[in-house]
Amino acid sequence: METQDxxxxxxxxASFRVRYQESDQMGVVYHSxxxxxxxxxxxxxxxELGFTYLDLEKKGLLLPVLSAxxxxxxxxxxxxxxxxxxxxxxxxxxxxxxxxxxxxxxAPGSGLDGSESAPQGFKSSADGELLVSGSxxxxxxxxxxxxxxxxxxxxxIYGGIRNALREERGTI
Length: 172
Known about the structure:
Elements: E1 11-17, H1 33-48, H2 53-58, E2 65-72, E3 81-91, E4 95-104, E5 121-123, E6 129-139, H3 150-153, H4 155-169
Antiparallel strand pairs: 1-3, 1-5, 2-6, 3-4, 4-6
């Protein structure tokens, strides 16, 4: 198997403000919303790499979640600006794994407090107060949920994601 060193570099950042419906009466974000935020992170990361879930599904390819792990450090609250940092930690013809950090806004003027545009795209480091970290594991499957080898079934997608990751990381 080829080296995965190029995966450990940059984080993809997707920022947004916590919505009212994501919090409870105390203004604290309900725990299951972090899984939704992880999905936002990976969806936006794949989009920036040049591939959308819709594109994959049109080609008969699905990427279901096989495992999810979350570690809660602090709570996000209603109206906080948060950034979901996402990176791919494993990429093979059969599986894909992501790592996430959800962070609260930094100091005023940092671009994370809502006073400026929040970070989007690829970053070399994650900024802000760590709230939740986690990971998800996925498998490439067809519409019948049978496993597929991406490099054989859709080599243009496999190579395209791999090349896009190389370009973002600058190494391999």
